[in-house]
Design goal:
6-stranded parallel β-sheet; alpha/beta; 3-stranded mixed β-sheet; 13 strands; 10 helices
Amino acid sequence: MHKDSKIYVAGHRGMVGSAIVRELRRQGYDNIITRTHDQLDLTDQKGVEEFFREEKPEYVFLAAAKVGGIAANAAHPADFMWLNMTLEMNVIHSAWQNGVKKLEFLGSSCIYPRLAPQPMPESCLLTSALEQTNEAYALAKISGLKYCEYLNRQYGTNYISVMPTNLYGPNDNYHPEHSHVLPALIRRFHEAKQSGASEVICWGDGSPLREFLYVDDLANLCVFLMNNYNGNETVNAGSGKEVSIRELTGIVADTVGFEGEIKWDTSRPNGTPRKLLDVSKAKALGWEYSIDLKEGIALAYQDFLNHLEDDSLRSK
């Protein structure tokens, strides 16, 4: 990309999209196109086609998605599948029709099998069954990356895919039921501290292992890959380090300053037992993450407090 290249970031108000916009601007890219949902509904095929015909972006970061945690995915699988498949197909197809030079598709590590080898290499995609609790979302993301792959094969496009691990950071969604584990914990422990609660109840038994990546690190990788990677196989985005949910919960409680008891509701699902990405490909390309988990959680909590103060907390 050149500094004046016309770049469209789909989903710029979300956690990932807003981080990509911040990173692009930090690196001096100043011709960035964005649209709010009210301005452009990405599930509206005609509207998306008209947008691409009129704007003719040269590069596209496809970060728009309907996302949620275990509870939201389990309760609304049809919604997650339809909305994600529809918006990504509309954007990718219109990008191809209008000669976009390069597109980067953002997926999720949930595309890999429930019992994939650990750490999970990009090559384990579609080798066995998915985790049932987020299967619909995973199938939608697999469809998006495969469509990029098929366009590359059939039409010679240069569309790449990035599969991030669990993300957190500025502009996260803090809904008490529909958010992912780390922002949900930040909100739960903050509210428990504010109310003087003596205990916080967490889902499962705390044994699952998870990997986390601060979203600004992901954004840095996304821009790096747009400039330095061409290939059909997806690229994993992660820290290469894992932590148990029990340990994570302790870090969040300490960061927030909650001093009560943490209890575990074992009637609730744990989800996938372990999810660690093999990040050797990104490292071989010359990229590594820079923000460790404790530092990142402290930054995320401060962002949470800032949004509480100005009443702009994302909690949908």
